[in-house]
Design goal:
The protein has 267 residues and is of the alpha+beta class. The protein has 13 helices and 4 strands.
């Protein structure tokens, strides 16, 4: 009977416990890393001076405790919480080093529910909170999923004005006279793709945000994936080449398509 009661309680606990996946996103240097570090620190020190007035469970003293727990997916890099906290408390204090890709940290929050029905089954519940640091640059690629390659190329061409024209000079020089129907010159195409990536980085350094594919502005993420070569294409192509009008999610290299499709599926 005691064993049955224990198993029944465990079953009820699993049914009542909840899981929440929270994505924190923003463009580079927008403060994502500092925000997540501060939030996690406040939660872990909920009973020693934490200030979370907008969190009802904390405000109503129903949040009993918080601890770090192992990630469910070890294929995702861990969020550098300890390193960031050490930098904040260092002498001199420094802002946490910005992250360069997806990372996450997982917490278990023990709380008393204010749901009268749940209180009939157990006094406390656990919320497993997964906080994901997600690069905002990848979100910039979402509109590409609704475009074909030709229309996207035309849109990018329309932006090459003023300083953008100056920063893209090498790319435009390499593209001069390129015949999209001629046999592929892989070396030239690689140079063109590299020049387009350099153009994106120049835009980013100067504070511009509408750069596509935004995924290519995260070099640390893609450096190991050398198959990712991508560039804007010609803005006028013969109708005999329908592949230029394919949706971008099927026409782009896998690394760029995966970035946009991953967002579409939802983190």
């Amino acid at each position: 009977m005691k064993r049955l009661k224990t198993e029944l309680n465990a079953l009820v606990n699993r049914g009542v416990d909840r899981h929440l996946r929270l994505a924190v996103t923003g463009l580079s240097r927008s403060g994502k890393t500092a925000f997540i570090t501060a939030l996690v620190n406040q939660l872990l020190n909920i009973h020693t001076g934490a200030r979370l007035p907008l969190l009802s469970a904390a405000r109503e003293e129903r949040l009993l405790g918080v601890k770090r727990v192992p990630q469910r997916d070890f294929g995702i890099p861990r969020f550098t919480y300890d390193e960031g906290l050490a930098q904040l408390y260092g002498q001199p204090p420094m802002w946490p080093t910005p992250t360069r890709g997806v990372s996450e940290i997982r917490l278990a929050l023990r709380y008393r529910s204010n749901d009268s029905l749940l209180r009939h089954f157990k006094d406390t519940s656990t919320l497993y909170l997964e906080i994901v640091d997600y690069p905002g640059e990848w979100l910039l690629d979402l509109p590409m999923l609704a475009q074909d390659y030709l229309s996207w190329s035309r849109q990018m061409t329309g932006l090459l004005q003023g300083q953008r024209a100056e920063w893209s000079a090498r790319w435009r020089q390499l593209c001069a006279g390129l015949d999209p129907l001629a046999p592929a010159d892989e070396a030239r195409l690689a140079d063109i793709a590299a020049a387009w990536t350099d153009y994106l980085h120049a835009c980013k350094r100067e504070g511009l945000h509408f750069i596509q594919p935004g995924a290519l502005s995260c070099p640390e993420k893609w450096r190991a994936r050398r198959r990712c070569s991508f560039s804007r294409g010609p803005t006028s192509t013969p109708s005999a080449k329908p592949s230029w009008r394919r949706p971008i999610k099927t026409a782009t290299p896998a690394c760029c398509a995966n970035a946009t499709n991953t967002i579409a599926k939802g983190w």
